[in-house]
Amino acid sequence: MTREFQFYIIPTPIGNIKDITLRAIEILKSVDYIACEDSRVTQKLLNHYDIKTKTISYHKFNETERVSSILKILSEGKKVALVSDAGTPLICDPGSILIEKLRENNISITSLTGSNAVSTFLSQVPRKTEEYVFTGFLPRTENGIEELCNKFKYVNMVFYESPNRILKSLEIIAKFRPDVKVSVGRELTKVFEEIIIDDIKNVINHFKDGVKGEIIAMLYASEDNEIDKLKEKSEILKNKGFKSREIVEILTSLYDNVNKNDVKSILY
Q: Tell me: the pLDDT tens digits for 155-214?
């Protein structure tokens, strides 16, 4: 017997309108309301699948004020589904404030599987390790971008970027990581889908005439040796005011493959 939930988090297609599950269609038809970012966008999907459910707006500018009205609807025994314009809610989309309040009020919640740009992108991008970090959209400033990229220098870093900013952002990254390998995907699941994997300078050149479509990208992890990593982390700890003996203890306790002599050789 299928468990009954009051609130459903439902992924919607990131491009191709056919990329939606049968269960998602079924639930969107059965709930009392659909909370959506932009009713005009969501209505196109609903019309395509002949879904007549009423919509209510829920976006980043009215998140807080909408919580009480949605709680009231649920308190009346009705069911609500949350969708974003594309992809999975709460993944760089509104919903976090609402879900926190629903859990505080013991509302039964479930999420459906479905479209997500990160998993769709990574399934086409070869990597030496499964480890990656997703950072959402890049910071708007050059210093912010540099700080973020250096923080995750030794892990594959996946991020979103707007088509009108991706070239500028890649040019900024190329200043301090000129040899980094990068993968850029655009228009995923659509007719003009494209994924390019190359050195950052070649990728910049590839898109020099402009970029169209939704963008997701990944900076490949630096392949610097372990000593370079230790030097970098030791320098960070020094700047924070830690003494050499403290740095030795911190790094050897944090990293299983690091021994005290390696750290001492860098510090003394």
A: 999 999 999 999 999 999 999 999 999 999 999 999 999 999 999 999 999 999 999 999
pLDDT, tens digit, 9 for 90 and up, residues 77-106? 999 999 999 999 999 988 999 999 999 999
Q: What is the mean pLDDT of residues 99-114?
A: 95
8 A C-beta contact, residue 152 and residue 135: yes
CATH code at 7-115: 3.40.1010.10
Domain 7-115 matches domain 118-219 at the CATH topology level: no
pLDDT class of 64 with cuts at 50, 70, 90:
confident
Tokens describing residue 196? 């390019």
Query: Could you report how far apart the first and last alpha carbons of the chain are, in Å?
Result: 67
Question: What number does CATH give the domain 118-219?
Answer: 3.30.950.10
Kindly give, in sequence order, each residue whose CB lies less than 8 Å from that of residue 261, ignoring residues fewer than 6 positions away.
none
Residue that has been written with the tokens 């250096």 in this structure? 150
Which pTM value belongs to this model? 0.81
- At 1 the pLDDT is 40
Q: Which pair of structure tokens corresponds to residue 1? A: 């017997």
d(CA 40, CA 75): 27
In the block, tokens 């911190």 appear at 250
Return the domain boundaries, the chain. Answer: 7-115, 118-219, 226-267
Please give the pLDDT value at position 41. Answer: 96
Predicted confidence at residue 231, as pLDDT, reads 78
- Give the number of other CB atoms < 10 A from CB of residue 19: 16
Q: Are the CB atoms for 59 and 42 separated by under 8 Å?
A: no
Distances (CA, A) of 182 to 128, 170, 172, 185: 14, 9, 13, 10
- From residue 212, alpha-carbon distances to 135, 136, 150, 164, 218 in Å are 21, 19, 28, 8, 18
